[in-house]
């Protein structure tokens, strides 16, 4: 710019040189002012981005104006906003993972500690019946750890999208029978009655094995919260909108403060259980797995309380064509 004005002043006639020099000085001043203004804009923009990235300050869109720098600022603001949301999401996921790992380690450590304490009892037991009882307790604790690990692996498969789900016509009554069959002995030992109310014609589009596992986890949870002499009911019904598999019990029900969290992993509930209800042996992930398995099949799982008392879990598979 300066070189151009110097050439023009040298080539201009002598009487025009003062005018050319004055005009050049004005243009030079305007050029320097604009350059300084743009430099300050870019520097301020760089400082704002640095503050957002390092101090967590939110992006302010109130100063958006027309112009190249404003367009650049807006695009950078969008990018920084996306980065900020990604950072927050990663932070939440990291905290959730840390909490889950802490819960897993605690849940595994508890039965392992009990196993460690039981081993000397087995070794020192002189009476055959006492030794047999201790061995049964050890087997039960080992089964709990095995169930926990297996369930966590299944949840991980669902989260990773690695679970293969078939979509074929399934008879809901057969799924219900398959689900409760492994629990028959446990219910007899707990003196819990099992009632099946099945619509044999009810069908849905889904995966029979995964649905049976979801129903089994729900029925197991209901059994563990039902006092001796109580009843767990599994009902299958179908209407024009959906096929429903409902599992209910005659236990104390679900506390209102626990209902919003009932499907959260490792959530055990804050309400005090009734004295005549056996202490649940689960780890707070059975219902979470059930919901994940149902959701993977485009179904819904809801929890509520029966008006007459007890908990109710309802799986619904909407009809694809009404």
How would you sum up this structure, described in words?
- The protein is an alpha+beta fold and 322 residues long.
- It has two domains: 2-86, no CATH class; 168-318, 2-Layer Sandwich (Heat Shock Protein 90).
- It has eight helices and seven strands, in the order H-H-H-H-E-H-H-E-E-H-E-E-H-E-E.
- The protein has helices spanning 2-11, 17-55, 68-124, 128-159, 172-180, 184-190, 208-224, 286-295; strands at 168-171, 193-197, 203-206, 231-238, 242-249, 300-305, 311-318.
- A five-stranded mixed beta sheet has the order 2-4-5-7-6. Strands 1-3 form a two-stranded antiparallel ribbon.
- The protein starts with a helix and ends with a strand.
- The model is unreliable at 271-283 (pLDDT under 50).
CATH architecture of the largest domain: 2-Layer Sandwich
Please mark out the parts with pLDDT under 50 across 5 or more consecutive residues, or reply none: 271-283
- The CATH superfamily of the largest domain is identified as Histidine kinase-like ATPase, C-terminal domain
Number of helices: 8
Q: How do the helices and strands follow one another from N- to C-terminus?
A: HHHHEHHEEHEEHEE
Radius of gyration: 35 Å
What is the general shape?
A: elongated
How would you name the oligomeric state of the polypeptide chains in this document?
single chain
Taken as a percent bin, the fraction of beta residues is 5-15%
Number of domains: 2
Catalytic activity: ATP + protein L-histidine = ADP + protein N-phospho-L-histidine
GO molecular function, one term: phosphorelay sensor kinase activity
InterPro entries: HATPase_C_sf, HATPase_dom, His_kinase_dom, HisK_dim/P_dom, HisK_dim/P_sf, Sensor_HK_Regulatory, Sig_transdc_His_kin-like_C
Main location: membrane
